[in-house]
């Protein structure tokens, strides 16, 4: 039984890793499985919200009651978010749990790149837009929740992202640990609010973490 405390809200969650193609057989991506984002989308529905999940490639099953939109690249994710925010007639929350590729190849080759007669091969990358920052600038009324996947200087690095991206709070993940973070069933996170307040959620399942995050909305 879940209290329907999120009734009247649209919660758009992003999940999994984005993919940036180098050529038809290779891409740049990361280890995000989608588990954290899918847990949030499921729990948002259970708690009464209209729940929309925008996911990068993932084998996970679509949670019951959730409207899932599949995307591949960071740019597709940004466009899908833009469309859903425009459609929403209710209080709109965007939870950025996806691990978005900050860089993409400057050019995608239409053909498989062949081995070459030299030891080095230079792949030129360009930056993707910062999705959170772009959306907050275009739609100041939305409430944005960020995630941070960090390996070092955890609190400092995560804090810096709150203002830069226009977040209400950020959920800090220590992805240097093997028992939490990428791919695991469990997580342990530190939530840093825009006023500087800090709250720690101890080791628990990603579903329980999701519930505790959503209670804050
Ligand atoms: O999917 P799982 O296997 O369950 O793992 C969960 C997780 C560890 C991937 C997840 O909890 C997590 O930490 N997700 C965010 C990872 C990330 O991309 O962190 P970041 O520090 O690079 O980005 C900070 C925030 O900006 C994130 O909310 C990200 O979605 C957002 N972002 C990033 C890049 C970009 N171009 N635009 C963005 O808006």
Automatic annotation (TrEMBL):
GO (cellular component) term, any one: phosphopantothenoylcysteine decarboxylase complex
Record's keyword terms, sorted: Decarboxylase, Flavoprotein, FMN, Ligase, Lyase, Magnesium, Metal-binding, Multifunctional enzyme
Necessary cofactors: FMN; Mg(2+)
Binding locations of CTP: 102, 112, 147, 161, 165
EC numbers for this chain: 4.1.1.36, 6.3.2.5
One of the record's GO molecular function terms: metal ion binding
Region (Phosphopantothenate--cysteine ligase): 11-217
Catalysed conversion reaction: (R)-4'-phosphopantothenate + L-cysteine + CTP = N-[(R)-4-phosphopantothenoyl]-L-cysteine + CMP + diphosphate + H(+); N-[(R)-4-phosphopantothenoyl]-L-cysteine + H(+) = (R)-4'-phosphopantetheine + CO2
Domain of life: Bacteria
One BP annotation, GO: coenzyme A biosynthetic process
Keyword Lyase among UniProt keywords: yes
Protein family (similarity comment): In the C-terminal section; belongs to the PPC synthetase family.
Described function: Catalyzes two sequential steps in the biosynthesis of coenzyme A. In the first step cysteine is conjugated to 4'-phosphopantothenate to form 4-phosphopantothenoylcysteine. In the second step the latter compound is decarboxylated to form 4'-phosphopantotheine.
Protein name, entry field: Coenzyme A biosynthesis bifunctional protein CoaBC
Name of the gene encoding the protein in the UniProt record: coaBC
Covered range of the whole protein: 179 to 395 of 395
């Amino acid at each position: 039984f879940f209290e329907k405390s999120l009734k009247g809200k649209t919660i758009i969650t992003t999940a999994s890793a984005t993919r940036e193609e180098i050529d038809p057989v290779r891409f740049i991506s990361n280890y995000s499985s989608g588990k954290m984002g899918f847990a949030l989308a499921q729990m948002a529905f259970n708690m009464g919200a209209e729940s929309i999940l925008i996911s990068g490639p993932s084998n996970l099953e679509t949670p019951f009651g959730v409207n899932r939109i599949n995307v591949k690249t960071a740019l597709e994710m940004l466009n899908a978010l833009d469309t859903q925010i425009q459609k929403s007639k209710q209080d709109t929350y965007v939870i950025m749990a996806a691990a978005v590729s900050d860089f993409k190849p400057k050019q995608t080759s239409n053909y498989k790149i062949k081995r070459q007669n030299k030891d080095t091969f230079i792949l030129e990358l360009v930056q993707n837009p910062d999705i959170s920052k772009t959306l907050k600038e275009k739609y100041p009324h939305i409430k944005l929740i960020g995630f941070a996947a960090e390996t070092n200087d955890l609190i400092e690095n995560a804090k810096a992202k709150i203002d830069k991206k226009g977040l209400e709070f950020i959920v800090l993940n220590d992805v240097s640990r093997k028992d939490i973070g990428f791919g695991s069933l469990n997580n342990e996170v530190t939530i840093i609010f825009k006023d500087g307040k800090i709250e720690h959620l101890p080791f628990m399942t990603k579903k329980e973490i999701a519930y505790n995050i959503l209670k804050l909305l």
